[in-house]
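Suppose you are handed a protein chain with no further information: no name, no annotation, nothing but its sequence. What can you learn? This example shows the usual starting point.
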Amino acid sequence: MPASPEGIPALAWLEPHQAPLVRAIAARAGLRLIVAGIPNSIQRRSAPDAASIEGAEPISDLRSALATAHIRAAIIATPAPSAESPIADTDLLRLARSRSIVLLSFEPIPASVADARAAETIQWIESCRFLGLFRSAPALATVNELLESFGTPRTLTVSFRSGKGQGSLGARLYDAMHTVHSILGVPESIDASIITQVAASGLRLEPSDSLRLLHGDLTANLRYAGAKSAALSLSDRAGRWFRGVALVGESGCIRMDESGVERHDADGQVIEKSLAPRKKSASKAGALFEDIIDAPALEALAEAARRAIDPRATKPEPFDLEAVLSMCEAAILSARTGQPESPATVVRMAGER
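A reasonable first move is to predict its three-dimensional structure. Written in structure tokens, the prediction is:
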């Protein structure tokens, strides 16, 4: 997928308030947005040019654009469900794959165990990239070796926060569960609570049962067999982007975020520390938006997009998608029932559908 001097031709499917972030991601990642549009359900509530991208042809039919536009990538920023969204339509995933279009999604696709099984035959990982998994952050490039020498953690805490337009709570949950699964595996049970919006009447709204439509704040305790556990604190309405993880074990503590990794021994002495690679100077196009968007969010999402479209970049490590999604669904189910739920139950229920 070689880039022209102007960048790789791409499409954007977004909501109006996401336009500055999407434009900046494209500029940083070497993409040239030539077509852009928003879902019809959102378009009806917005001004006709609310999500306009300078230099991009406006579209209202994503399927037609994916089938005919001369693009090599598509940024799918909105979680809004639609008959014309690859988030909800595996046929569009197939279409994108048949045309060698890389989908760069703010949201997890597929978004459930059942959808993952349905999409398995189209090799989704090659045509759709989630932006961007914490474990793939540049600052964590050497963390696997550190984890091997550290041993099994007793506790793992994950705090992922983002602001409006940077991905749903479901995106933060998916990323967090992928992180937990990569270190501790699948828990026996998950006890979660989700705080959503409060209605005008004062009643708290029930959380969505769909991962991609989940919004608000989430806390969860994950219970494992043996002497280990994990805890999550997540939000998509925290204003600013942050992702941090801490592991505590017999040999001390490891702290990691997108700025670097630091290990302390059991006596509190720093025994290893690494910082994220220094960034090259931002392009003028990318810098234009830095005064109106969250810079850490831009760095994380743009770097993930850049690596996804670069044929020379290291491919993401394979992982058990079904297991990660079962953990996400168990957390959502627990928040709705008020009881601990098991990922194993989610997998069994998916098999019965």
